Amino acid sequence: xxxxxxxxxxxxxxxxxxxxxxxxxxxxxxxxxxxxxxxxxxxxxxxxxxxxxxxxxxxxxxxxxxxxxxxxxxxxxxxxxxxxxxxxxxxxxxxxxxxxxxxxxxxxx
Amino acid sequence: xxxxxxxxxxxxxxxxxxxxxxxxxxxxxxxxxxxxxxxxxxxxxxxxxxxxxxxxxxxxxxxxxxxxxxxxxxxxxxxxxxxxxxxxxxxxxxxxxxxxxxxxxxxxxxxxxxxxxxxxxxxxxxxxxxxxxxxxxxxxxxxxxxxxxxxxxxxxxxxxxxxxxxxxxxxxxxxxxxxxxxxxxxxxxxxxxxxxxxxxxxxxxx
Lengths: 109, 206
What we know:
Strand content of chain B: under 5%
Strand order of the largest sheet of chain A: 1-2
Number of strands of chain A: 2
Number of helices of chain B: 8
Radius of gyration of chain B: 26 Å
Order of helices and strands of chain A: HHHEEH
Oligomer: heterodimer
Shape of chain A: elongated
Helix content of chain A: 40-55%
Strand content of chain A: 5-15%
């Protein structure tokens, strides 16, 4: 059985998909990730490959929107989180909380 | 009414992106919106907005200087030799100031921005248009991207180019940003997709 994990970028991308809801497509997801992660710009390639990986794992699904004249008649691909994605996010959050739990008072948090 | 305005806006924007002549009033409004929304819009936009004549800013500066010289000539009639000498010095100083102004880097940038914006307004061929996405870059993406990303990624890149990069970096640097994105996008995508498939195939966590 294949186990599924998530890198930091994938986690940020998945959270961006959740946060943006119906407005989540390549441009908006990249802006959200860049804004929240900081430390330099992520390329469209990095974002798209993370989205591909998340889709391959079944965490998200996508569908093409309607072509618009503003984009030269090309459509947007909108992303939506699926049940395994929600579970993965919950696991990731629990993992982070567990790792940081139990530190003595005054430790950096 | 709003729908009709939106359609007109979309039509004009389409013409503008294709480098075809657009409605002048619409263009002025669009420029004002750009200045309002993007404080980093190239300096000189305001100059263009305030220019009613078709003259270039250089011509305007030279015209001002000519008027100044004519004024001096009028004053020179019947002036004493001492006054003429002081006027000559004044003229030399003014000429030097004009030359410095035209050579000043900031002024040059402003003039360049105005020229570029004027070319947009007057309509240009798409290959020369400052607002056009580099055609060869778009073409290259079609070859290097996986099939699924071919339809949407170039359009996303073009949208970011027009909405954010072009107003922020200007028509000279924006195409460089585009090519950097092309170079960064393709290898990353092939590598990560290949890596994922390989790990899945041999049963490792992906």
